[in-house]
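Friendly challenge for the regulars: who can give me the structure tokens for this chain first? No prize, just bragging rights.
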Amino acid sequence: MIRSVKSLAGRVNKRSFWLLAFLITVPLSVSAVIALSSLTDQLLQQETRRLRQFGKNFLMSTYWELQKQEIQIKKSVSLKSELGVDELVAVFDKDFDKYAVVGPGLYLANGVTRKELDGFMDRAKDQRSSKPMVFTVKGANENRIWVAGTYADGVFAVVALDPFPLWAHAEYLPDNMELCVVEETGVRVYCPHEFSDEVVKQAINSSANSMTGDTAHTGGDTSYIGSYWTLLLQSGFTAPNWLVLTRLPRDQVFSPIKKFAQYFVPLIVVVVMSSIFLLLLQVRKNLVPLQSLLEGTKKISRKDFSTRIQLEGEDEFAELAKSFNLMSSQLDRQFLSIEVSAQIDETILSTFDIAKVVNLLLVRIFEIFDCGLSSVVLIGEEEKPNQIHYCLKDGAPYTVDTVSELNLNEIRRLVWFDAEREIPTAVNAVFECIGQQFSGICAPISVDGATVGLLILDMDIDEQDTEVVEEVLNDFSQRLAVAKSADEWEAQLKYQARHDLLTGLPNRLSFQKDLNNKIKTVGGTSVLFVDLDHFKNINDTRGHSTGDQLLKLAADRLQQAVASKGKVFRLSGDEFTIIVDCVDELEVEQFAENILDHMRAPFTIDALEYLVTASVGVARYPDNGKTVEMLVKNADLAMYFAKQDGRNKIRFFHSSMVSPTYCRTVLEADLRKALNEQQFFLMYQPQINIRELQVVCLEALLRWQHPEHGVILPNVFIPVAEDLGLIQDIDKWVVSTVCEQYSEWTAIDIGIDKIAVNVSPRTLQGNGYLDHIRELMDRHESKGFLELEVTENVFLENTEQVLEILERLKSLGIHIALDDFGTGYSSMSYLNRFPIDVLKIDMSFVKEISKDKGAESIAQAMIRIASSLHLSVVAEGVENEVQLNFLDKEGCQVVQGFYYSRPMRADQVLDYVDSFKADILKRVSL
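First reply, four minutes later:
Bragging rights claimed.
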């Protein structure tokens, strides 16, 4: 072999041989080592994942069985009210071999002593959780799993679970796989195989940082690969988490690698040596054709296109010689086609008119090919496939009649065709128009994988020229596709200008145009202004991605509700409009009610349900406006009235609605100067302790004295102030005014200990409010008089930040009250975790007392919850004696409402307090 290498002629061949020999030997050797290492790692990872997955499946099956048996316990306990004692014992004996059930007038036990039961009950009390407790009890032969918990009517049950269904799936363990289930406390729950304490401890320590991981270890003389997986048992039970440890002997895992290595290395050596030998033969064989090609290339570089290379054989060099010969004869044609392509590109860049591009190509193509006819057929949509036809015959324009019955399926399957292949109907149809038979070639024009047209030439093609002709035509067809796309892009821009990109609905521009046409052509029409209720809350709390999905779903529902009876548009944000060819109030109301019905169902996004209703305002042409602007303005105004009436309602525009109080544009403009011009003032409503009969607190209520439109209530202007970012300045003004007023009252000893102030969630979490409160408290000598009322929305975001702010306020002596409890995202965790002093029951529950048993039950539950958490309770909206007596009976000591007093100005408070005290003294004396 060395002598053969030395006899190689040419320096290139020598370098190529040694370089390729090196490139074969080294990579193969390195690849062999890497392959063995990679295979080992992959096998290890595969087995580790299998161990982990089996452990997870094992524990999840156990968890489902655990839940199933716990449900059976709950179901058995629930039969207490239906069955007698003997029947109930039979139920428990059927399902459980050891149990104890104790409750009011009830005691059942089987296999559980009274002492053991007391221990179980003490243990459950220590847990202080409503979830069932799961624990492991060691036995002589095996450990048993027990479930204990308090169920309906205060019944306490403790049951030893049947171990067979819990662990039955252990029999499906793969060969040699071992497992052990332990608690995170170290107690072995189920361990059919011997795992050392050290291995168990190591897995438990690792689970503190990661729920799953690997536990490679050695046991006796055996090395294992292992893993653990953690079951968060606390998600459904009161219990320490469980870990499952699984393992396999390391020798068993890597036994395939050892067998593979015995044959792999010798095989690599044989392959390398054979490759080098064959390489030597091939390099020598390539010398002659390479030299011929080199000489021919030099002639081509001198623009000598007459060179021909003759090589015998049918290998790649022979094919290369044929290609070289063909290339040399066609270079002139290629250069010309490049020139034409450049001219087409320039035309595409300068215009969107595809007709100019097509006509340019059809004219210049006669300079490149010797053809009798050139044609371009641009195909439309499915329902009208015959769209545009261009044709030149003998270099001159030729009129083509409509081509009928073009088969799109045939066109989409098009490849290159010559005279000897099957000719599609679509191609023959073009030539039949001019009385000729097809004898040439055609190419599809494709955009994004779809055929949009044909490029057809009538010409005789030499077999050797076919590939070049196809290449040139393919290049032209691609440029035609670009021109077609540019033409369609212009149409797309026009579409986007009139449609909303998110929902696909027509946009504001389309709405104005369509409504203007309706006004001109239709005798009567109605405009519905639809706004989603509480959408901003979802958008702020769940993110804009969820908000966008909700808008698309809402748009779909609106279109379903409207169907063919109207047209839906999206103006902006969560605002939609609908045009209906109807002005009859009853018909329009039924139409709008159908829309509300469609919107009331929950929206499901990422497995979560959102309740988002809609408010609808209606304006009718010509009664409510004779222009687009007036109809939209009045429908928008009617929608705001629907919002003010409680949302999820329909309101028809009426002339009485035309008031700046409800006009958001006017509100925004006037609100910006209201604070600077001191247009705000405070009213105070007393809170009465009905047991001690004294005024214990005053709630400060904000009002806006508009110079033109009188008093405006906060439910009208507060949302606007929040949107404009003015709410922080307003809240700071309120608390400053309250502190100054309390200082005046303190000087005359009015005898009221607290003043409550509402604060917006945005203000509380904003910059500077906490410092502002601290400064006010330092300035006033009196401490502990200020109570800040927050709503549940403040806890939805930045929970830790809110907790820190409230705790700092508490450290300043500020009382915290949770306002409107039960109307929002009510959660017991707020009451238990956050430093809340007062729970205020919303007036919506109080006003239903004596009318709605459900409302009474909710009020009772709130009072009891507050009492158990040692919170004060204030009931808002008390208006009659029936409500007062109910609240007094249930243990609510402080009330607020019109029954005692409406809100009053600061200069009326002193007279009210004196009058109230006098009235109480008069009652006592009687």
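The CA atoms of residues 695 and 751 lie 8 Å apart. Confidence is low (pLDDT under 50) at residues 1-7, 382-387, 399-421. Your move, everyone else.
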